[in-house]
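dumping this here so i dont lose it again. seq + smiles for zinc ion
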Amino acid sequence: MSEYTIKDRVAIIGVGETKYYKRGQAPVPEFRLACEAIIKAADDAGIDVRDIDGISGYADDRNEASRLATALGLKHLGFAGMVWGGGGGGGSGAVGNAAAAVAAGYSKYCVVFRALAQGQFGRFGQAPVTNYVSGSPAYTAPYGLYVPAQWVALRTRRFMHQYGINQEPLAAVALADYYHAQFNPRAVMYGRPLTREEYDKSRWIAEPFHLFDCCMENDGSAALIVTTADRARDAKQKPAYIMAAAQGSNYRHNATIENSADYASSNFKTLAPRLFEMAGITPKDVDCAQMYEHFSGAVMISLVEHGFCKPEEVMEFVTFENITAPKGKLPINTSGGNIAECYMHGLELVNEAVRQVRGDSTCQVPDCKISLVASGPMVSPVSDLIVHSI
Amino acid sequence: MADEKKYYLPEGLPTPRAQRTGLDNEFWAASKRHELMVQRCNSCKAFQWGPEFLCHECRSFDMGWHKVSGRGRLYSWVRCWNPVHPALKEACPYIVAVIELPDAGNVRMVGNLLGDPMQNPPFDVAVEAVFEDHPEATLVQWKLTP
Ligand SMILES: [Zn+2]
């Protein structure tokens, strides 16, 4: 084993979240949600919240590390890190940064968090209204190309065209997310099952995405605690050891005005091999996966680029039966994910991966040892994480 | 019958303007003359889009502009149904297209595909640029080559 790896040196020992709300329904401000989630994660880990000495965020979170450290009364702040841009693409990357900080000794207990109250700030799915636009948006906004639903659809459609894929895999992902959410009392869509007929009848947002192919808009916060493997051994919870983490981007993926060198890509082609190399496993060894779904169609491309199936096999592989727990070949998004649990920018997917390997998911995959998280397809950077139980 | 629409999308969307840095002045000036320009490296002749201060192929800062034919192929398109901007409330659905330019190293441009918003054009068909003059800027739109 290479000396330069975090494999099994670091573990996630606690997870927590606030109640998840529909957009605009949170009764308290976003910063307070962040504090609540962090306190809950510390409680779950069985540590004093004041012993947290690292804060790792992503997506340019509005709730600054120094304010959090002050408000929570942290004795010392040894690490404060942020994954640049990329929205939900930084979720696993923030865990990777926390792991690096802990492995390097900057922090003993590093919290990873995301707080998001879209009801209190701007919505991701709506354009800002301005008179003039310059820079790369000058080449897209005047044509009504503004939001991720549209450009993810453009890339998804090109992929579908190249490999002869129809609506079925997209429907399978949306229905699987809703199915899993029916077992998860935390899920915003708990008690709100989705039928295929409702899916087909739902309005188009941007073809091929129906309303139910799109992530929700929510208020809430999620957090988790990362520490060294040595400290994790004495933890209250069964640790979820980090087998591998990776973050980054393909060659010129972020070239503007839809000029990614590899257009119909989820942007995991160069990341995923590094991830599996660090973990020392192959895709076949993964028991369940949490595949970020801002839009259902991106999931099949992420699955392909992680080696779970070939592009020509998408129609056979990405079926409701194959991707649902407990019996599917590769259950995905077992908490309901961004589409039906909560759009916590994918940090709810990391918490679910931890719960799966601890064995306390609401939709438990039998004997789940290894769970993978793929954060933020098509954006830049994207990131990956594999956790396992020992 | 209503008159033919003046513009593909209603007025009220933001007006494009060149960057303060001067990086893309040439593109917007050329569009007003109904010419389509793409950035090209003076050293290694590589095409580059969107514009940047240096060439990603050879790191030269000596970047120039190259006039292209305006003929391309329909690389991808999406029919948008959700009014993501107040000006689009009555304009849905509309089609956004990504166009590849084979005579410019296959760089891609974005525009609307003119014509029936309910059309289902095949991928990779030939398209050509159409210049849509607005008071302060000219947009580059695309139509299927007859
Ligand atoms: Zn060059």
